[in-house]
Amino acid sequence: MVALVVNANAYAATPEGKAAAAQRDAKDAAQKLDEQLDEAQVAAAEKVAIESGEHCLSGWDGSHNDLERAVRTRLRNPRSFEHIETVRSPVDAEGKFALIMTYRAENGFGGINIEAIGVEVDVATCHFREVSNDEIAARLAP
């Protein structure tokens, strides 16, 4: 056992041992930098998503889940709800963005209607409030 430790120490003192140790240290440092870079990129992407309001919307279909639930509760047949599309405006200086969700649902006579609802969403809380179509159209206009 002692011979192994002595041989390892002797190898570490040779130019080859020093080069191998330096190479290991460089590889460890590069790996650590890569990890820090990955963490920084993830943090930057999360910050952009939060500032843009993307975190409030479903990654699957772009809908606002709380808005969907609220609309379903108003329907005569909540199971007939079908999300068609969600269109949104950029975030304004107050940290809010407009959203129009178009959906299909059954009416009181059994027919299918296409409806839309416009809301204003707060980026910080993801809470929404219903607003007029004129206000939404003004925000979505280029």
TrEMBL record:
Coiled-coil ranges from the UniProt annotation: 19-46
Keyword annotations of the record: Coiled coil
Protein's recorded name: DUF4019 domain-containing protein
Protein species of origin: Aurantiacibacter aquimixticola
